[in-house]
Protein: Phage portal protein
Organism: Adlercreutzia muris
Amino acid sequence: MGRIMDFITGADLKPGYRAEAQPAAEPQPVPDEGPRIVTVGEIGDVGLSTVAGYGALMSVDYMACEQTKARSLSSLPFSVVSRSGQWESFPEHPLAVLFNGMANEEMTAAQFMSWHRLRCDTFGTAYWRVEWWRGVPVAVWPVLCGVFRDFDRSRPEGRRTVFELSGDKYNPAGRYFADEVVSVTTHVTKTGTKGESLARLAAKQIGLSVDLERFYKSMLDNGNHQLGHVEIPEGHHVSEQEKADLKEAIARKRGVGEAGKAPIFSAGAKWVTDQQTMRDASLIEQQTWILHQVCRACNVPPWKVYDKTGTTYQGSQQSNIDYVTDTIVPDARAIELALRPVLDSMGDRDKAAKLNVKGLMRGDDRSRSQYFREMAYLGAYTPRRICELEDVDPTGVLDKPLFPLNYGTVEEDGSVTVYSNAAKAPGDGSQTGVTDKGGMNVRG
């Protein structure tokens, strides 16, 4: 009997939870304590910080990357389409209704997708619970509790994977099957069923980002807007009272509100600015390097988080395409496939879930009009369909494909049918109106 067991730590985990089939030697899940920073000097890395759980959001770099991905994913229209040969969309399908409106009573589909993206990248795996009513999904809930996953190949097909939920405010504790709990992992996975946390893998880089923010805050709090020190005249002995006065004068120099004010020092002391400036310390370059490292881990182009260093307009256009194809499409595809057991349980084996990424690829008005014109001339889009894609009222618009009059269609018997009142042969310069298998038909 094969067995796969996973533990995912969640925000609302009940302490002491233990699955029925869990071996006693297995470590127990612990509740997520929320945002926190952990200094890892205990394991040999002196002075560095790492993050745990949602504490990664304390890094502006990580937060910016995750917000970019979440905003993109939550903006994608959801549809259920036929995969049986002829394309057809089903806007009234229960899943389409849920993911284009309210995912559940508490959150919209956009809010749910935003939670999903952050949850998945931060913890490695995001679990959803599908609420059924008389064979129809009526809500999709985020799983915030601990999850114990068990696989037993001796069970009947479709019931081999079992999820044990410890329970939270959205999900009752209990055992669920694959069509009741949806599992979506990151693309970094060792087992195929449990994803690796991107926040954990990039913890040191994220921790460095937090450390830089702390450094800047310390600089402001300490008043060292310009690095420097206090010099005492040579031969002057500083009394304890003068030393206390100097410390007080330096303390009054601290804080953002005191920036630019000239302090008054006793004992003939003066403030001497150090030769090394903030620029000489290459702090901006360090900050940029850390940002790029976090962007690499999250698979987000730096210019998407407003680092436009070395970016041209043409390059940014290509980067936008790369962002959609290399970041959003794989994440969307993972969600589409994860919903497969739900569709199968509904008896919709001939249907598939689809997240439309075309909205992220939209260009300016001129580019879109040229694209739609070409698609209309090819007969791929009707004028009415173009209005629907552009959110324009299609009332009274032609709902039939256009066809250039100087083109013809080749019939099954090899003859060419020309749709022209002038009864001329196709005028593309290479056609004669007669194929090697037949003659020419004219419809006008």
